Amino acid sequence: MAALRERLTVPVLAFGGILMAVTQTVVVPLLPDLPRLTGSSAAAVSWMVTATLLSGAVLTPVLGRAGDMYGKRRVLLIALALMTLGSLVCALTSDIAVLIAARALQGAAAAVIPLSISILRDELPPERTGSAVAMMSSTLGIGAALGLPLAALIVQYANWHVMFWVTTALSATGLALARWAVRESPVREPGRFDTLGALGLAVGLVCLLLGVSQGGQWGWTSPRILGLFAACAVVLTLWSIQQRRAERPLVDLKLATRPRVALPHVTALLTGFSFYANTLVTAQLVQAPVATGYGLGLSIVATGLCLLPSGVTMLLLSPVSARISTSRGPRVTLAIGAAIIACGYVVRIADSRDLWVIILGATVVSIGTTFAYSALPTLIIRAVPAGQTASANGVNVLMRTVGQAVCSAAVAAVLVHHTSLVGGVSIPTLHGYLLAFAIAGTVALVACAAALAIPAEPASRDAVPTRDRTEATHDEALEGA
Hints:
Layout: H1 2-25, H2 34-38, H3 42-45, H4 47-70, H5 72-92, H6 96-106, H7 112-123, H8 126-157, H9 160-181, H10 195-218, H11 223-245, H12 253-256, H13 259-287, H14 300-328, H15 330-350, H16 355-383, H17 389-416, E1 419-422, E2 425-428, H18 430-452, H19 466-480
Antiparallel strand pairs: 1-2
């Protein structure tokens, strides 16, 4: 039985990562109908996405740090339980305020991926870690690509609450499997949790992401948005001072600002931006009316199926990216991935009228995302002590989230300024979509340059600075004692 659990550790953790991405994505096809179904405004309904984004961004580094200190399996189970509870509440209510609160609970599941990556580092032998981490990191894209068609099918052919009952059942299954198959890691970094640091980071991130996500609706120069950005700057400045003085900080800024850690974080932000434009723009473009001259007028279900090859490709190619990282190094894999993303957008710009070319371009972008996302946690693992793996990867996932939020705001701004009237309705023009692709492709090239600027690893495979290796070994010895 123990051998079976060990063999199933990677699939169970990957299943949890896919579920996290699915629960974040499934609400998207439902958004146009939710104002009618819940008797609320479109602005209120938009918080079904914003609440998950904000809670996920805040809780990912916090739960990652808690996992490093109190046990990664324990915190992983808490994140999966919150995801399950959120789905259950969504299935039981039509009240928009309760739905938003439940979606905020589901945001806690964003910590599943960094926690799982840290568990894999602790539990697997070195020869298996690379491929397992690559698979785990790719689950974000896989789940998003699978979640859209699943949700679209349910929404089109069943009551909308059924979608949340399905995610509740899947989440409960993932929680039960994780409790059974995943062992608690002995690697911890003892100390007192930095509550003040967690609160400061939470306030700063909420101000930042709320300003980015609501800027288009409230106006980028409105007092509320400018106030949020100003508050973000002040709070995060004070937070960084507090973190540098704290004995056991939430985020080790001295470590995070080293080039071998900081540049992967920057690349994660840029890759998150360039990847997200693919899903965001493709869904709108293929559903545009045929009368636009470029739109295909596809249904929600057909739109989801267009993105399905991307998810399948990410699933199949994650082992390939791990092999490249093993032979050439994750820095090269990351640069290759960013370059492939840029090539995918070249395809999108060349032809965004034929369905097969649209699917091809979207799939090429997903291939590049697979390579990039699989390399990022490996770079982090090799640059930080074992006792900080979950928190460091949590920050890396946070940077991807910030990149996606900025991308969403940038794409919305571009499309709003490039519209035409079709049947009396304002519709984005093809030029607007192509401009969004060009911006995303350019950001991918910048990500490629940032990846190539990451310093080469030391000769040691662990590649942790000597002082950090000594401290990590000392902490692990104390924990073992």
